[in-house]
Amino acid sequence: MSFKWLKPYMPRGIYARAALIIILPVLLLQVAVSFQLFRRHFEGVTQQMSTAAAREVQLVIDLLNDPTPTADSLDRVLSNLDITVSKPDSLSHTDTRLWYDFSGLIIGRVLRKEIPTMTALHLRDDRIVTLHLQLDTAPVTVTFDRRRVSPANVHQPFVTMIFFGFVLTVIAYAYMRNQLRPIKRLAKAAEAFGRGRSVPYSPGGAVEVRAAGNAFLDMRNRIERYFEQRTLMLSGVSHDLRTPLTRMKLSLSMLEDDERVELEQDVEEMQRMIDAFLDYARTDFETEHADVDAASFVREVVDGCSRAGQNVTLHKIEGDGSFSISAGTVRRAVENLIGNAVRYGTYAEVSLRITEKSVRIRVEDDGPGIAKADREQAVKPFARLDSARNQNQGPGVGLGLSIAADVARAHGGVLRLRDSERLGGLRADLVFGR
């Protein structure tokens, strides 16, 4: 049996679901017990007591209908039964009771069955019962104590049940909250690590939660060691390569101009490749985050690229506010997107949109763009899509989009590639949470 229809109505938070798991069984148990208690106990007891009271009232009716009773005998019976008889000005034919007096329904049903001459039953409070009777001689009203037809304080068991049910629910929820707190701490630590930050965390809670926490710490340590080893390896390779490149530059400077131009271009391309490798290696390892004003940050990046000779302008800024980022890595990501835009197109525009929950940095160009089927491949390291982007228009090693995507993921964000509706080329959106 499928319960998919119930899923939209279920709470999303773990605390709310735990509260539902605790409260729902307690509530259903209370309803079931209350129903059985009222039906089996109070209903049965009320029927028995009402039947006994109806027989006493019927005895009084028989005495009142007797044409030869003595006043002393009638008064003695009324005194012993603690029943009051009076003659009303008018006889009522409408029953009355309090809205919450459910036992009054049983009392009325029993008394009407046992006393055919009763025209109305008044239960205006929980202390007095008044019967309107049409006798053979004259109409009368009979009054007696309510405790003779139903148990006193019928509501007390329900109030007690609700009170202690609430107390037990609070205790159970407090205990459950204490058990769920380590899970939330683990989730926060994992979320922070996914955003590129390493926060202090120590496993706690139940044995299973501790095991998951220890597994997370082992995984985080292995990943951090991998990042550090990768960075150190590429830094060492870069350092070893820079020395022969420097010697090559010195040797080339001694050649004739017409002989060294192409060789110097090859050396510069090798230098750019090494720098790109290092940028890619540092993407996940730099984890220092700080609050940065989004508008000022984007203006600085665009101004820097413009001063470097790239044909890029700031299109528009919507909203204002700051977001927590590693400024160096995000700057490299935006610069890579701008570099790709002006490399494969002739013009690039940058826009910024700030909302309550996110910051979106958009880079658009007028180049050939990237086909929809190739966009997933384009963000992979060292991807070179010759059919989508003309590689003859500039040197590249296929790391620009990969670095931008890794930076976005390290900050808990995403890189989206779409077609630019305004410029006709590629539209790259870096989206970060606030």
From TrEMBL:
Gene3D superfamilies (UniProt xref): 1.10.287.130, Histidine kinase-like ATPase, C-terminal domain (3.30.565.10)
Membrane topology qualifier: Multi-pass membrane protein
Catalytic activity: ATP + protein L-histidine = ADP + protein N-phospho-L-histidine
EC category: transferase
Database matches in InterPro entries: 2C_sensor_his_kinase, HAMP_dom, HATPase_C_sf, HATPase_dom, His_kinase_dom, HisK_dim/P_dom, HisK_dim/P_sf, Sig_transdc_His_kin-like_C
Major location category of this protein: membrane
Residues of the Histidine kinase domain: 236-434
Enzyme Commission (EC) number: 2.7.13.3
CDD domains in UniProt: HisKA
One Gene Ontology cellular component annotation held by this UniProt entry: plasma membrane
Cell compartments where the protein resides: Cell inner membrane
Alphabetical UniProt keywords: ATP-binding, Cell inner membrane, Cell membrane, Kinase, Membrane, Nucleotide-binding, Phosphoprotein, Transferase, Transmembrane, Transmembrane helix, Two-component regulatory system
Pfam families: HAMP, HATPase_c, HisKA
PROSITE patterns, per database record: HAMP, HIS_KIN
GO molecular function, one term: ATP binding
Segments forming domain HAMP: 177-228
Transmembrane segments: 158-176
Protein name in UniProt: histidine kinase
Organism listed in the record: Shimia haliotis
